[in-house]
Amino acid sequence: MTGGERAIARLVLVGFMGAGKSSVGRLLGDRLGWRHIDLDEEIEREAECAIHEIFAREGEDGFRRREREATRRIAHLPRVVLTPGGGWFAQPGLPALLGRDTLSVWLQVSPERVVHRLSDDPGLRPLLSGSDPLPSVRRLLEDRVASYRQADLKIDTERRTPEEVSAWIEGRVRPHLISDSS
Ligand code: S3P
Question: Considering the entire predicted model, what is its pTM?
Answer without folding.
Answer: 0.95
